[in-house]
Amino acid sequence: MYTILCNMKGSRKLSVEEAHLNTIDHYGLFSDLLDSNGIVEEGVLEKLRLNVRSLLSSNTPDPQLLDLCERVLFHNDMKAFGLHQLILLFIDWKKEQTITENWCLK
User: Fold this and answer.
1) pTM here?
2) What CA dihedral angle connects 13, 88, 20 and 72, to 10 degrees?
3) pLDDT at position 78, please?
4) Are 33 and 86 in contact (CB under 8 A)?
């Protein structure tokens, strides 16, 4: 289990499970999400939420995706700062996964 900050003061936090990170990876939710400037603003969060709504409406809802939405992406505390922290966590987690996979292949 991981914890991300949702505001700069650190008074709001969200728990992120490994299953949430796997779901983000499975659906490629962060692919092409950011513009070339790399800045995470509220519009980026809204774009992500619209993409997820589209996924939910086009298929039989995946329970893992629904859980990610309920507990993280659509949580009342999730704002642009929290999304930025989630993206950073995902990048670190993905690097760790790659290192582990490479180590296991040796």
Assistant:
1) 0.91
2) 40
3) 97
4) no
C-beta separation of 41 from 80 below 8 A: yes
DSSP 49-105: HHHHHHHHHHSSPPHHHHHHIIIIIT-TT--HHHHHHHHHHHHHHHHHHHHHHHHHH
d(CA 55, CA 63): 12
Cα 76 from Cα 48, distance rounded (Å) = 15
Instruction: Tell me the three state secondary structure of residue 40.
Output: coil
pLDDT in tens, 9-64: 999 999 999 999 999 999 999 998 988 888 999 999 999 999 999 999 976 889 99
Supply angle C-alpha 18, 19, 21, rounded to 5: 65
Name the residue type at position 52.
Answer: V
Name the pairing type of β-strands 13-16 and 2-5: antiparallel
Amino acid, single-letter form, for residue 53: R
